[in-house]
Write a structure and sequence with these properties.
With 379 residues, the chain is an alpha+beta fold. The chain has 3 domains: 113 residues, Butyryl-Coa Dehydrogenase, subunit A, domain 1; 108 residues, Butyryl-CoA Dehydrogenase, subunit A, domain 2; 147 residues, Butyryl-CoA Dehydrogenase, subunit A, domain 3. The protein contains 11 helices and 10 strands. The strands form 3 sheets. It has a 4-stranded mixed beta sheet with strand order 1-4-5-8. A 4-stranded antiparallel beta sheet has the order 2-3-7-6, with helices on one face. It binds acetoacetyl-coenzyme A. Acetoacetyl-coenzyme A (CAA) binds next to strand 3, helix 7 and helix 11.
C-alpha cells in the first residue's frame, strides 16, 4: 500500500492551492457576507480544468483520477467552501453522471461544455417533502409523443440559479415507486421552467441554492438519461461519488480551522505566554490534527476504490460522515481557541463553523450515511 502522491497529484494540489490563495481568498468574506456568486473564479476553475476533472479528454474533461479531484477540492474548500460546492456538484453530480449514464449524443451536447467549464450544471433530486427519502418525490414526467411534460417543484438545488443545465429526477410511473423514477437533462430557458430566488443560508452563502419550478416543461425524449425507471439507481450511484467530493470539502474546512488555530495560538499571549504553550490548547490542536489525518485517509481510500472501479458506497459514506463531523468539531474548537475574536466576523473563523454545518446535511445527512454504512454491514 502506497500513501505517497505522485508528481501529477502533487502538481494539481499545488495549482489548486495557488489558485485558491490568489483568486478566492481576496473577497471571500465579502462574498459570504453579501451572498455574491463567485462567477469569475468559477470561470477560471473551468480554464484550469477543475470543472470536469475526472471526465475523459474525449469529452473535453481533464482525465484525472479521483485522488486528484479530492486534493483540488480540499485546497479550494480550505479557502472558500462556497466555490468548492459549485465545483463538487458540477464534477461529481453532473459530469460524472453524464459520463457514466448518458449516451454519446448527450455527452457530445451537454458533457463537453460542462466538463470544460463553459457551462455549469446542477443536480435536482430533493423536493419540499422529500429530502432524505428521495423515493417519495412527486415531480411528474408524462410522456406526450416526442416529449416528456414535466410538472412539479424541486428544492435545495445547488447552482439552481447560475446553472445552464439541470439533471432532473422525476416520476414517469407513480405505481412503481422508486422504480418509476427517471432522470432527464433540462435546459434553462425552456418554456415553463422557472428558478426561485437564492436561499438566505447560514453558510456557503456565496454559492446559490434555489427552488426550481416546472410548469408543463417540454423535455425532448432524447434528454432521458438511461431508460425510464433507471432514475433512482442513477441518483444513488451518483451520490456515492458526490459524497467523496463533499467529504473533501469538509476536510478543507477542517484543515483551515487547524491552520487558523495554530497561527492564532502562537501569536495570542495570555498569562505572559503564547496560548499554544498551554496543554489545554495543545490537546485541542492534537485532536484536530489527528481527526483531519484520519478523514484524509478515509477520503483517499474511497477515491482509490472508485478509481479501481470497486464498490464505493459504504466507504464514501464513512468518509463523508467522518470528514463532516471532523469539520464541525474542528471549526467549533477553532472559534473556542480564538475566544471572543472567534465570535466576530473580522477574524473570519466563524465562517468556517457556519460552512462546516452543511457538510453534515447535504448529499445525505450524517444519519443517512450511518444508514448506508449499517446496511452494508448487515446485508
Ligand atoms: N447505487 C446503486 N443503486 C442503489 C444504491 C447505490 N448506492 N443504493 C440503493 N440502490 C438501489 C437498491 O439496490 C435498490 O434497487 P432495487 O429496487 O432494484 O432492489 C433501490 O436502489 C432502492 O434501494 P433502497 O431500498 O436501499 O432505497 P431507500 O429508499 O431505502 O433509500 C437511502 C436508501 C440510502 C436512505 C437513500 O434514500 C438516500 O441516500 N437518501 C439520501 C438522499 C440524499 O443524499 N439526498 C441529497 C440530495 S443532493 C443534494 O444534497 C443537493 C446538492 O445540490 C448538493
Amino acid at each position: 500500500m502506497d500513501f505517497a502522491l505522485n508528481d501529477e497529484q502533487k502538481l494539481i494540489r499545488q495549482t489548486a492551492r495557488e489558485f485558491a490563495l490568489a483568486e478566492l481568498e481576496p473577497g471571500a468574506m465579502e462574498r459570504d457576507e453579501q451572498k455574491i456568486w463567485p462567477g469569475e473564479a468559477v470561470k477560471k476553475m473551468g480554464e484550469l480544468g477543475f470543472m470536469g476533472m475526472m471526465v475523459s479528454p474525449t469529452w473535453d474533461g481533464s482525465g484525472m483520477d479521483t485522488i486528484s479531484y479530492t486534493l483540488a477540492m480540499e485546497e479550494i474548500a480550505r479557502v472558500d467552501a462556497s466555490a468548492a460546492v459549485v465545483m463538487s456538484v458540477n464534477n461529481s453530480l453532473v459530469c460524472h453522471l453524464l459520463e457514466t449514464h448518458g449516451n454519446d449524443a448527450q455527452r457530445e451536447k451537454y458533457l463537453k461544455p460542462l466538463a470544460s467549464g463553459k457551462k455549469l450544471g446542477a443536480y435536482s433530486l430533493s423536493e419540499p417533502h422529500a429530502g432524505s427519502d428521495p423515493a417519495a418525490i412527486k415531480c411528474r414526467a408524462r410522456k406526450e409523443g416526442e416529449y416528456y411534460l414535466i410538472n412539479g417543484t424541486k428544492n435545495w438545488v445547488t447552482n439552481g440559479v447560475n446553472s445552464d443545465y439541470v439533471i432532473l429526477f422525476a416520476v414517469t410511473d407513480p405505481s412503481l415507486k422508486h422504480k418509476g423514477i427517471s432522470c432527464f437533462i433540462v435546459e434553462k430557458g425552456w418554456d415553463g421552467f422557472e428558478t426561485g430566488t437564492p436561499e438566505n443560508k447560514l453558510g456557503i452563502r456565496s454559492s446559490d441554492t434555489a427552488e426550481l419550478y416546472f410548469d408543463n416543461v417540454k423535455v425532448p425524449r432524447e434528454n432521458l438519461i438511461g431508460k425510464e425507471g433507471d432514475g433512482f439507481r442513477i441518483a444513488m450511484d451518483t451520490l456515492d461519488g458526490g459524497r467523496i467530493g463533499i467529504a473533501s470539502q469538509a476536510l478543507g474546512i477542517a484543515q483551515a480551522a487547524l491552520d487558523a488555530s495554530i497561527a492564532y495560538s502562537k501569536e495570542r499571549v495570555q498569562f505572559g505566554k503564547p496560548i499554544s504553550y498551554f496543554e489545554g490548547i495543545q490537546f485541542k490542536l492534537s485532536d484536530m490534527a489527528m481527526e483531519i489525518e484520519a478523514a484524509r485517509l478515509l477520503i483517499w481510500q474511497a477515491a482509490s476504490l472508485k478509481d479501481r472501479g470497486e464498490p464505493v458506497g459504504a466507504k464514501a459514506s464513512m468518509a463523508k460522515l467522518f470528514a463532516s463531523e471532523t469539520a464541525m468539531r474542528a471549526a467549533n474548537q477553532c472559534v473556542q481557541i480564538h475566544g471572543g475574536y472567534g465570535f466576530i466576523k473580522e477574524t473570519g473563523v466563524e465562517r468556517l463553523m457556519r460552512d462546516a454545518k452543511i457538510t453534515q446535511i447535504y448529499e445525505g445527512t450524517s444519519e443517512i450515511q450511518r444508514i448506508v454504512i449499517a446496511r452494508h454491514l448487515l446485508r
